[in-house]
Amino acid sequence: MSKLWQWIMNILGLGHEQRELEVYFQTLVQVAEPKIELLPGWRDRLKTGVVRSRAYAETLAGSLAPALDLSPQGYNVDRRVGLLFATPDVLLGVLDGSKALHEYFLHASHGDEAYALLVMQCYQKRHFGSALRNGQLLDDVAQTVVSFGGHRLVGICNSEQGLRQEAVQRAFHALAAVAARRIALQAGRLQSLNTEKTQVELKLATLSGKAVVVDATPGNERLPDSRAELLAYLAEIDQELAELAPIATLEGKLEVVKRVSNAPEQYLAVRNEQLLLDRMGIVRSPGDGEDGIALSMETVTFGRIEPMERVVVPVRITRQALKAWRERLA
Questions:
Q1: Rounded mean pLDDT, 24-36
Q2: How far apart are CA 315 and CA 68, in angstroms?
Q3: pLDDT grade for 272, boundaries at 50, 70 and 90
Q4: Do the Cβ atoms of 296 and 274 come closer than 8 Å?
Q5: Which region, left, alpha or beta, applies to residue 270 given φ > 0 means left and ψ of -120 to 50 means alpha?
Q6: Any idea what DSSP says for residue 217?
Q7: Which of 15, 222, 236, 292 is most buried, judged by most C-beta within 10 A?
Q8: Beta strand pairing call for 113-133 and 308-318
Q9: 280: closest CA among 139, 108, 120, 86?
Q10: Residue 293's pLDDT is what?
Q11: 1 pLDDT band (50/70/90 cuts)?
Q12: pTM for the complete prediction?
C-alpha cells in the first residue's frame, strides 16, 4: 500500500480490515479500468466480487509448495532445479536479469535471503526416440519432452510467509488483469465487427447496381457473393454488435469486472501437477522400470477468452549463492 493511500485512509478513520479491503478495491479498478471510479456506487456494486476474489486468492496461495533452493548446492543436490533450467548459465541469467532481485539485494535491511515466485512457460513436445525399458534398449518409442522458458522472478520478499502474502496479492492482481484483458478483447472485437459491417454494406451497395463503390478496405475477398448470403451475414454481425455494444460504455466495463470478480474460479484456475521426468526432461511413468524425478508445480490458467497458462514455483536465493554462481560460471 502506498503512503498516500495509508494517509488518506487514516484521515477517513478506516480500520485495518477496511484499509486492506480498500487496497483490493483500488487494485481491481486501477488494473481493469480506472474510469469505473466515475460511476456512482461502484464500490457497492463490486464489493461482493472483491471479497470473493480476495478469499479465492488466499485459498490459492495456501497451496504453494515449499521453496526450491536455487543455490549451486541446491542445483547439485535437488535434481528438480536442473529440470527448470536448461543449463546453469540459464539459471544465472534469470537471476542476474531480474531487476527486482537486484534492487532487493541493494537494500541491506532486506537481509541476505530472498524468496520469490518463479513464473515460467511450460513446453511439451512429442517425438520418437530411444528409451531403456526394464534394461532393454528400444527404438522409436513415443516420448514427451518437457522444458521451461520465459522465466521471471516476481513477488520478491524475505520469508516464505511473506511470499504467501505476495502470492495472494499477485493472484488478485491476475484476476484484475483478466478483467482488463477481457474488456480489451471485447472492445477489439466490437471494432473489427464495425469494420466488417461496413465492408458488407459496401458490397451490398455494389450488388444493387445503384452505386459504384471503390473499396480500399482489406478482407472483402472472404465475404459471400450472393445478396441473400450477405444479408444473412449482416444479420449475424448486427446480433453480435448488439451483444457487445455495452463494452463501449463504463457501465458495460463495470459489468465485465463484476462478472469476473464474482466468479474468480471461472477466470483464474490453478491445478497442482506432478510430473515424473528423467534428467533430460522426458516424461516417465511408474511402469517404465526406471527411477524418475518427481516435479511438483502449479499451473495457472488465466481467462476464458484466449486463455494463457503459466507455471509457478516458489524459490529461494541468497546473496552468497548469487555470488557463488557468478564465480562458478565466470
A1: 96
A2: 4
A3: confident
A4: yes
A5: beta
A6: -
A7: 292
A8: antiparallel
A9: 86
A10: 86
A11: very low
A12: 0.79
Look at residue 4 and tell me whether its pLDDT is greater than 70: no
Query: Is the pLDDT score of 214 beyond 80?
Result: no
Q: Within the chain, how many helices (H) and strands (E) appear?
A: 11, 6
- Under the banding of pLDDT at 50, 70 and 90, the label for residue 101 is very high
The CA radius of gyration of the chain, in Å to the nearest whole number, is 26
Assign 289 a pLDDT band (cuts: 50, 70, 90). Answer: low
- The Cα 8–Cα 14 span in angstroms is 9
CA distance 322 to 75: 12
Give me the amino acid identity at 312. Answer: V
The residue type of 262 is N
Angle at 85 between CA 81 and CA 88, to 5 degrees: 90
Mean pLDDT score, 89-98:
95
pLDDT recorded at residue 186:
96
Q: Give the residue among 212, 181, 216 at the shortest CA–CA distance from 195.
A: 216
Q: Which residue in this structure is represented by grid cell 497458462?
A: 309
Helix (H/G/I), strand (E/B), else coil: 270: strand
Residues pairing with 308 in the sheet: 302
Report how far residue 215's alpha carbon sits from residue 312's, in angstroms, rounded to the nearest whole number: 49
Burial of 306 (0-12, 13-18, 19+ CB in 10 A): exposed
pLDDT at 219 over 60: no
> What does the chain come to in residues?
330
pLDDT above 80 (res 34): yes
Domain ranges of the chain: 3-62, 68-176+265-328, 181-261
Identity of residue 31 = V
Distances (CA, A) of 206 to 163, 201, 236: 63, 9, 20
Sort 79 into a burial class: Cβ within 10 Å, 0-12 / 13-18 / 19+. Answer: middle
Q: H/E/C letters for each residue in 196-234?
A: HHHHHHHHHHHHHCCCCCCCCCCCHHHCCCCHHHHHHHH
Helix axes 16-32, 160-208, angle to 10 degrees: 30
Cβ(48)–Cβ(262) below 8 Å: yes
Separation CA 22–CA 208 (nearest Å):
59
Contact 67, 315 (CB under 8 A): yes
